[in-house]
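Exercise 7. Predict the joint structure of the components listed below.
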Amino acid sequence: MTNFPVEKIRADFPILAETIRNKPLVYLDNAATCQKPQSVIDSLVHVYAHEYANVHRGVHTLSVRATDKYESTREKVRSFINAASDKEIIFVRGTTEAINLVAQSYGRTNIQAGDEILISAMEHHSNIVPWQMLCEQTGAVLKVIPMTTQGELIYEEFERLLTPKTKLLAVVHMSNALGTINPVKRMIDAAHALDVPVLIDGAQAIPHMSVDVQALDCDFYVFSGHKLYGPAGIGVLYGKQALLEAMPPYHGGGDMIKRVTFEKSEYAGLPNKFEAGTPSIADGIALGAAIDYLTAVGMDTIAAYEAELLAYATEQAKQIKGLKLIGEAAEKGAILSFVLDHIHPHDIGTMLDSLGIAIRAGHHCAMPVMDFYGVPATARASFAMYNTKQEIDFLMQGIQSLIEVFG
Amino acid sequence: MFEELRDLYQEVIFDHNRNPRNFRIIDPSDRKVDGFNPLCGDRLTLFLKMDGDVIVDASFQGSGCAISTASVSLMTEIIKGKTLTEAETLFKQFHEMTTGKEEHIDLEAMGKLAVLAGVREYPARVKCATLAWHTLDAALKNAAASVSTE
Ligand SMILES: Cc1ncc(COP(=O)(O)O)c(C=O)c1O
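Solution:
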């Protein structure tokens, strides 16, 4: 392995010292949610102990302090994804809320009966259901880009499905069920050639690689703080300024207005227009701490280390008789989804848990992907920068042993 | 390596998982109900053949984890020959055994089903064991459609 300082990083994550059923925790469920470094935990504690007040609405010192801290995260996020302006960074609860916001605000304004919305066969439910709801409301039609059994989108089919009827492309950057990294740049360019705006679901991609929204030229990019080593309850909608400006508000309430009378309300400018109500103040500030942490380690360094972990895990997994990998795309992030002959993923999950190993067993909120592979569920080990080769060895030993026990 | 799991994965469970009993279709059947656990995606179909009030045959189709397969397999064995009322009582006892208060459980009375008592300690797996029984409950009430554990 490269000289990635994994032991030093592990020491920054207090939960990794936990024991589960008297065994050291081996946390391999990072695609569901990531653990938090001490600096993020400290940040939460510090806010509540020293900086907490409501934001954007007080003249008192504490409110100004909280507002400054909260707004400084917006700038950190902007810089982290290289957005052109911090007006383009909208704080939401998470990926799910961000997609719903775009579907309802952008979608209901711009999409009509007979229009088509294009998604892919490997979307998380949160990038399927909001569009189905929009289709029901508007009479638009949902189209789905198919994939191969390797778990790669069929690019020619994408080109065929992208037509003048297409009014929006919403596609996942990295699949949580398969690990596939989609060729989003190429897809965005193809969509733009037909003036089709593109939303990228970056929930999984964002903790694993550096993302530059201007280089991608995507119209919307969405992600959750909790998968980025930050707190749950805070997430980001990036949108191009011109698009966001033309969109109506999603929620109405305090903070998103300039002036309210009973006859009419005048909305605030960006980003406040989309941020009605008191936000997750401390979580937002702590997301800034998570970004500081990641920036210090370096996203490219993390990506290189995780690529080694994935290559090692894949090689080991292939040695196990009766193990079938689900998702073998050439471009893949650090996710290993698999099934075992005659052993249900739930049993795998419980057995590994008894060894202290946390994996996910289930449909990963991607039931259509399960249907495609004809399995009810898969077992999924998903890696983060604090995982080690030894942990992968331990996982593989656990899998070998449980295969023996099941006979 | 898996010593702590012995209460959950007893040999009887492995046996029923490897060789599920009554894994077949009854056609024509008198009652046929689908059970679904949306949490894990497991599905099963339960078939009952009745003679008046008595269950004369029971079988199932579908796939699930070892716990749910063993549970439905054992269930189809045990309810054969039982009246609807007796089966309903068993459903309640099974439910109590897997989710109820410790002191209300009479493991002796549960017979073979007692091997599933271990799920009590694994809240994430209780639904695997009870899916079969919820499906039976729906069949007993003659709910023709389908049942979900949620
Ligand atoms: C690809 C993908 N999209 C969307 C989501 C939804 O994220 P959240 O639950 O944080 O809103 C997830 C989370 O599992 C995901 O993996």
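Discussion. Chain A touches chain B at residues 21, 343-347, 350-351, 354-355, 361-363, 367, 370, 376-377, 398, 401-402, 405-407 (CB under 8 Å).
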